[in-house]
Amino acid sequence: MVEAFAVASGKGGTGKTTTTLALGMALARRYDVTVVDADTGMANLLFHAGLADAPVTLQDLLAPDARGPDGAAVDVADACYDRHGMRVVPCGTSLAGFERSDPARLREVVAELAADTDVLLLDSPATLASKSAVLPIVLADRVVVVTQPTIPALSDALKVQEYAASYGTGIAGVLFNKVRGDLGSVGTQAERYFEGPTLGSVPDSDAARAARDAGEPLLAHAPDSDAAEAYRAAAAGIDPEANAAGDVADRFRSAVVPDRP
Ligand SMILES: Nc1ncnc2c1ncn2[C@@H]1O[C@H](COP(=O)(O)OP(=O)(O)OP(=O)(O)O)[C@@H](O)[C@H]1O
Ligand SMILES: [Mg+2]
């Protein structure tokens, strides 16, 4: 069984990468979890996961000839790292590597990963402005929408929801992040515009910033923090579907990469 989730927000800096790793760790208590840095243009999950020195990454797999830094052929397993109870697939940060990479190859990579995991979490780029930015939403079964309870962030999040719907991708729920105090009237009213449930509300947290600085996922760095607790509660609201791995892999492989975002 496998279900693929894109963690997306439209807006930058809302906490997608933090959320991907936090939900991944929480879900890993019940499922076999794989997280992928599908933000291939501005990859930085590796810095959140202590993988800054990873020798082989997704970027190598997306190169037309799939060659690693030493010129040797690489396969998907070479870019998988067991960290914090999950399988983590980081993406390199070189501009030349990104320019060389073919985003459409992500389909084949996730198809292979889907064969051997229960939950695939795709950390997605901000914006909807390029093929590489929209592909995780096109591929995923459902989107976890991460937003702050502000009008600009919500506007972008709703655009993501609309875009997902146009590709038949569902909404797993909306997660409010960096919340100061209670959700406030903007956040509370926003709930009615999202199709999925509200998964939770993660407080603005020094622990989250400190975790990033330490290069560790929040749930490893500060498991007792309020933010970590909120992420665990949010993960409990996600019930992954048991889609047949072969069907999901076939769908990934045959997904049409949109010509225009
Ligand atoms: N709940 C939180 N409280 C405080 N800071 C947070 C919280 N969640 C994330 N952050 C911080 O906000 C910054 C951006 O977080 P993150 O990288 O996860 O966002 P992102 O949406 O993936 O960004 P990008 O759009 O650049 O990919 C990081 O410094 C992170 O530590
Ligand atoms: Mg990010």
From TrEMBL:
Q: Which Pfam families did the record assign?
A: CbiA
Q: Which InterPro entries match?
A: CobQ/CobB/MinD/ParA_Nub-bd_dom, P-loop_NTPase, ParA/MinD_ATPase
Q: Name one GO molecular function term.
A: ATP hydrolysis activity
- Residues spanning the membrane: none
Q: Which GO terms describe its biological process?
A: negative regulation of cell division
GO cellular component term, pick one: cytoplasmic side of plasma membrane
In this chain the CobQ/CobB/MinD/ParA nucleotide binding domain maps to 6-217
Looking up Gene3D superfamilies in the UniProt record yields: P-loop containing nucleotide triphosphate hydrolases
What domain of life? Archaea
This chain's protein is named P-loop NTPase
Question: Which taxonomic lineage does the organism of this UniProt entry have?
Answer: Archaea, Methanobacteriati, Methanobacteriota, Stenosarchaea group, Halobacteria
